[in-house]
Amino acid sequence: MNENIERCLIAENEIKRRIDVLANEILEEMKEKEFMVIFLLKGALVFAADLCRRLPVALEIESLNVSSYKGGMESSGVIEFLDTRFPDVKGRSVLLIDDILDTGRTLHTVSNKLNEMGVSQLRRCVLLSKDKKRDVDVGVEHVAFTIGDEFVVGYGLDYKGKYRNLPYVGILKKDSI
Ligand code: PRP
After folding, report:
1. Closest by CA position to 126, among listed 58, 115, 118, 134
2. What would the pLDDT profile of 45-97 be if each residue is shown by its tens digit?
3. Catalytic residue among 102, 137, 158, 175
4. Is the CB of 98 under 6 A from ligand 1?
5. What letter does residue 176 receive in the DSSP assignment?
6. Residue range of the domain that includes 29
């Protein structure tokens, strides 16, 4: 355990087991067998890498670089698209992957953009969903874990750019914040 982590919230083997179940659900649901995955940088990198390797189909994997937290603990509420190029999604079946659903603004904004660009089927999948009232309503078809409204790091999630590499989801010690 990292010395700055107060406690582990979701253990590595628990995440692995849940991803196996989730992958089967997704395979059953996606109509096209050759769909596109779009994961959101940077937080979804670790989750997407593990989930995609449990999907035994000819995936195309794309990423989008969007930002809302600015490295701190609160969402700024403004979603910025940082890429200059957008994947060609017209007529495609897309699975959008993110690490955490908090206010809902990020997934809402990205989903709208993908729909505007003409995706044929859009499904969303998150590792963590905070159990709270969202600022905006957004449908998410696949949720690995629901957590309380607390700040977590690890398995892709950061605090000021650190801790994304931890193989579990954990709570930071108060004196590390
Ligand atoms: C975080 C997280 C989600 C988003 C969720 O991204 O990765 O994409 O915020 O929050 P919301 O539901 O309130 O919109 P962040 O901007 O911190 O970027 P990162 O993925 O690079 O850490």
Report:
1. 134
2. 999 999 999 999 999 999 999 987 555 566 667 888 998 899 999 999 999 99
3. 102
4. yes
5. G
6. 2-176
